[in-house]
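Worked Example 4.2. Consider the chain below.
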Amino acid sequence: MSFELVELPALSRYTVDRQEPLRGDAERLLRLWPKARVLTVDAHGRTLVTERASRLVDRPATEFGDVPPEDAVLLGEQDGVAYWAVLLADEAVGAPAGRAWFGADLTDEPQWLDLRACGALLDDTGAGLFTSAVASFNWHRTAKFCAVCGGATSPVKAGWARACAQCGREEYPRTDAAVICLVHDGADRVLLARGEGWPAGRYSVLAGFVEAGESLEACVAREIEEEVGVEVSGIRYLGSQPWPFPRSLMVGFEATGDPDEPLRLADGEIAQARWVTRADVRQALEVPGSVPDLLLAPGASIAYRMIQSWAAVGG
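Applying the procedure from the previous section yields the following structure tokens:
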């Protein structure tokens, strides 16, 4: 039984106009700067959030000077207000907190959280701004030298390109395509797996990177066969979500597999895999931890939205 996503994946939400033409309009950027707002991100990918992680804490642009800093990134414009992001040094926010993969202790006080911890809790505007900021800064960290001549590069076009000082070549942010697929039996069972190194009991759907010269659908079939030994059919697109860790685009699919087919787990990649009933998935979503050995993907991931949407069928 096919299904549709019940809502957009958490990190696919966005309300601010990205305004690509504005990135090269230095005069207009200066006019907008006095009323602009700035999102600060630390070197660990965290930003300051409040109201139980539902709202970003941004700052007036004028706190950062009379003009945009050279390494600031324009995130877009909304209702005449430009939104920027600035990367802070480690010492600006103190010692790093542990990276939150599956949630955090939420309070009403402002706190520094990463995208995994608060992405599903933020409003649509905040989720889009924070996701774009993290993706951009992750790219800037690895693009400091020209891929052609090795010369040093510096940010241009409001942070959306880097120019080589030696040969003049411009480099733009790159995205790695990855497929993620919910495999079900066409009835009431879904195939879930636990990756090597994941916490005990943590399960999700299967995923993998697209290879050069490979279609998305071919990648789905290959990855599932390689990871768990199951041949699938009825591959169908569901939706997509940016996953900037460091620069992936997760392209979601569903497919049908045979639960009687023996599971053959990829050594070093998949620690466990099993077929799970819709009833158990619903219970695990409703009350996390209530189903033994079944903790599901966190809310910021497209995997969560896919599992949630499949579980809702017939409910």
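The first helix runs from residue 26 to 32. The CA atoms of residues 42 and 88 lie 5 Å apart. Compare this with Example 4.1 before moving on.
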